[in-house]
Design a protein that fits this description.
Length: 314
């Protein structure tokens, strides 16, 4: 029986982790009193009593929480941006390689990937690793997400009664190429520069799609949708959480894929489409599932030696 604490249990990610852990018979969930959830001494006590602590906090608060750790056996699983590219922190995407899975299994400090970053890295990491996508390729990424990924303030803007009508349409943002996920997108995939990233949110709660367009003549060797599909299928063969969809799945769906189709699910779908000149690889998943709390619980399961899918919806 592992003792588990969620620091930030009243935020969007923390609430979803709590939901996924409810009813489990292999953990004891430590609950901090609501009026003490920002008390440093109380937080420190709970962190050090735990075997595993989830951090669902802003970056500065996550860094502070890590400084409270005195118990050498406590494992920290951090859902913030604070530690994703730092030495000594395992990157919480086990499907990338056996080394990533082993680092999670044996590590005491685990950083859960960002939602957009998860979609991007799931596509680009295998292609770079296979030598198909050159590291100096000028990568672009286009992504759409439900508004829940923006946290409590953005959620309130969409859901409040009498909301501003502007929230009926797509919300394009971070034009200055300053998105907080860019750093890990570059570092984890090993590309030479940060991608050109254009995300938007729109009027639905959860679910997202990340698209990376590629010019075939700028890839290594002669590449087609078929060869990229083969490479991605090989990379994710046998993985529970990632399903590479059959070629032509977009056409079978009527030529349109809807970004919220994986809402409430903890896996990820990968699509390959295009032609011999221009190819698009895309990932579809729940920004609160494989893009956040689902991924965090998967990491916890690996640490515990449990079935990776325990408590998750696959």
């Amino acid at each position: 029986m592992k003792k588990v604490f969620i620091d930030g249990s009243e935020g969007t990610t923390g609430l979803r982790i709590d939901e996924r852990l409810s009813g489990r018979d292999d953990i004891e969930l430590l609950k901090i009193d609501s009026d003490k959830r920002k008390d440093p001494d109380e937080i420190k006590k709970f962190i050090n009593e735990s075997d595993i602590t989830f951090l669902c906090l802003p970056d500065d608060a996550a860094r502070e929480a890590v400084s409270y750790v005195e118990n050498d056996n406590t494992v920290i699983i951090d859902a913030s941006t604070a530690h994703r590219t730092l030495p000594g922190w395992a990157y919480g995407f086990p499907e990338l390689s056996p080394a990533h899975r082993d680092a999670i299994k044996n590590g005491k400090r685990i950083a859960v990937p960002g939602c957009y970053a998860s979609g991007f890295i799931s596509l680009v990491y295998p292609l770079v690793s296979a030598g198909i996508l050159p590291k100096d390729y000028p990568v672009s990424v286009f992504a759409a997400s439900g508004y829940s990924g923006g946290g409590k303030k953005l959620i309130a803007s969409y859901e409040e009664e009498g909301r501003d009508k502007k929230f009926d349409s797509a919300r394009m943002y971070v034009w200055g190429q300053t998105h907080k996920h860019l750093k890990e997108m570059k570092a984890v995939t090993g590309i030479d520069r940060e991608p050109l990233f254009l995300p938007f949110t729109t009027n639905y709660h959860s679910g997202m799609m990340v698209q990376v367009p590629l010019f075939a003549d700028l890839l290594t060797g002669k590449q087609t949708p078929e060869t990229l599909h083969e490479a991605l299928s090989k990379h994710y063969a046998g993985e529970k959480f990632i399903k590479v969809m059959p070629l032509g799945a977009d056409a079978e769906a009527g030529g349109a894929l809807f970004t919220d189709a994986c809402a409430g699910w903890d896996g990820m779908e990968i699509f390959v489409t295009g032609n011999e000149e221009r190819i698009v690889v895309a990932s579809r998943f729940d920004n609160l599932g494989k893009g956040a709390s689902g991924a965090a619980v998967q990491c916890m399961n690996i640490v515990m030696g449990a079935d990776e899918a325990k408590g998750l919806d696959l």
